[in-house]
Every structure is written in structure tokens, then in C-alpha cells.
Amino acid sequence: MTSTYDLAADASFARNPGVPLDVEWVGAARANTPAIERRCATLPGRRSVKKDYQAAWLCRAISCIDLTTLSGDDTAGRVARLTAKARQPVRADILEALGMTGLTVGAVCVYHDMIAPAVQGLKGTAIPVAAVSTGFPAGLSPLHLRIAEIEESVKAGAHEIDIVISRRHVLTGNWQALYDEMRAFRDACGHAHVKAILATGELGPLSNVAKASLVCMMAGADFIKTSTGKEPVNATLPVTLVMLRAIRDYYAKTGHVVGYKPAGGISKAKDAINYLALIKEELGDRWLRPDLFRFGASSLLGDIERQLDHRITGAYSAAHRHPMG
Ligand SMILES: O=C[C@H](O)COP(=O)(O)O
């Protein structure tokens, strides 16, 4: 088993050029909430992956993590530790037991001020640096400052920019304003890839999530992302289903591929497998690669490493066995 995926060298990591705003298409976008909830209720626990393949699925999940630190007390030292973990996400003996080489996370995700230590820590690797810009997490600073922040982040070396949309444009159904804002962010990103954070926990009904997903893709988002991780409700399976279906519709109508990033509160290996299973079922294997799929997560990697350790060495279960048997 090897993973030598090189994001920078992957010509298929295509840009979504976007299309003109199609208000009729957006207006027709719906989400059948009861049906979506029924479908998602069948997921947890049901998508048990064959034991032999579990380690491979977990390694795939690692390769798709945007390893994140987004805290007010972030320091260069913390980011240096994060980049070391990004380069070697699991212990060498686990990798050796799996016969795996070259496994890294998908990207490292930081605030603007932490781009420099992230770039420094990832020097010589193909791991991209993603920066959250545009007044993250609320996105309520003046538009010209949000655009300037993107430009500064690209100048500082970020390869990917995670922007936050103005939720009010969705809540008031002002699709033109959302399109124009996203287009301006897209243009400011230049050569950098752009992920549009919808903050789905603040958008109201699922049909708003479907409409906002479409508008952001029409305006040129390369990825659509659920959440900042700071909303009261972050990534969920129902929201994921709605966004994956929007990506599928957009691809069917325009031929442009757009990636997906669930973020916030995903911290367990078994949850990661549920997300991967849903993507495989809805979009197919093409989307199960880091150029089109990422987990935005600060603590998921730790649980995956524990699970791999458990599978490889049995050490986890031995350490947790009750002393009285
Ligand atoms: O974009 C990434 C999220 O902010 C990470 O959220 P988390 O700390 O709940 O994993």
C-alpha cells in the first residue's frame, strides 16, 4: 500500500471556471428534508467496511485531512508541531506495519498570521497551506478589507483560501449579491484555489444550503465547505447529502468538477468512514481523493491514529482492558 499523491503535480486538480448566475436553476433547487434525514439515519454503523480494508480507508481519510488550527492563541511553535504531524501523520512503526510510504495529510489550514510558519514547516513537501481569510469566521468586515485579506494571504504563500460567505445574502435570497461577492473573492485568489465556507448551521432550511451551494459553484468556487467550525451546528450528514447532490447537479449541467469539505466537529474515525461512504455512493471514487475531498478537522487525525494502532498492534485494547478482566 503506498500513497505518493502529489497535489501540486496533479494536472487534474482543475479550476472551476464558474458559469453565469442562473436564477431559475437556483430557484428550482430544493431539499426534501424528511427523505434526506431518513437516508442519513441508515448510515451510521451500517456502512461497516470489511476489516481487511479498514486500514486503507483510514489512510485515505488521513490523506484528505486539512489539518487545522484556528485558535486565538495559535503560535509559530504550535504551527511548527502541526506541520511536523502533517508530514508524518502516524507513527513510523504503524506505517511500516501497513507497508505504506509517503502518507501525508491533504493540507494544513491556519489563520492568515500563521501562513509564514506553515509555509516554513512544509518546505520541500507537496502539502499545500490553506488560509482562512475574509474576516473568518463571521465574514462581516468591509468587503474591500476581506478582498485585501485574500490578496495578502496569497502573497504570504497560501495555496488555498477558505473564504466565508455573507450569510445574510442567503437568508434574504439575494443570489446576485452572493454571486458577485463569491466572484470577487474568486478573482482576488488569483492562482490559489478557493473554498467557499457556507456556514450551513446559520443558513436556515436545507433548501437554502442547496441554493447557496449552487450560487457559489456558479461563481467559481473550487470547493464548497460546510462550516467554519465555530457555528453552533457544523458539518452533518444531511447537509453533506444536500451539498454532494448540488455538486453532482452542477457537474451534470456544466461538466465542471467541484470539491467538498465537511468541517467542524468531525473527530472520530468511524464518522470519517461514514463521510467517505456517502461520497463514494453519491459521487463515486473520483471524489475520494484530496484534490476533490477534504475533512476540515483539528482532532480527527488523533483518533484515526489510535484506531490504526489498535488494528496493527492491539496495543490500544490491551491498554484499555479493565484490570479486573
Ligand atoms: O475548518 C476546520 C474547522 O474549524 C475544524 O473544526 P474542529 O476543530 O471542530 O475539528
UniProtKB/TrEMBL annotation:
Q: Which UniProt keywords apply?
A: Lyase, Schiff base
Q: Which SMART domains match?
A: DeoC
**Superkingdom classification of source:** Bacteria
Q: Name one GO biological process term.
A: carbohydrate catabolic process
* Pfam families, per database record: DeoC (PF01791)
KW Cell division (keyword) present: no
- EC numbers listed for it are 4.1.2.4
The reaction(s) catalysed by this protein are: 2-deoxy-D-ribose 5-phosphate = D-glyceraldehyde 3-phosphate + acetaldehyde
Q: Which GO terms describe its cellular component?
A: cytoplasm
InterPro entries per the UniProt record, alphabetical: Aldolase_TIM, DeoC, DeoC/FbaB/LacD_aldolase
Pathway assigned to this chain's UniProt record: Carbohydrate degradation; 2-deoxy-D-ribose 1-phosphate degradation; D-glyceraldehyde 3-phosphate and acetaldehyde from 2-deoxy-alpha-D-ribose 1-phosphate: step 2/2
Q: Which GO terms describe its molecular function?
A: deoxyribose-phosphate aldolase activity
Q: Which family does it belong to?
A: Belongs to the DeoC/FbaB aldolase family. DeoC type 2 subfamily.
Know the name of this protein?
Deoxyribose-phosphate aldolase
Supply the source organism for this entry: Donghicola tyrosinivorans
What lineage is this protein's organism placed in?
Bacteria, Pseudomonadati, Pseudomonadota, Alphaproteobacteria, Rhodobacterales
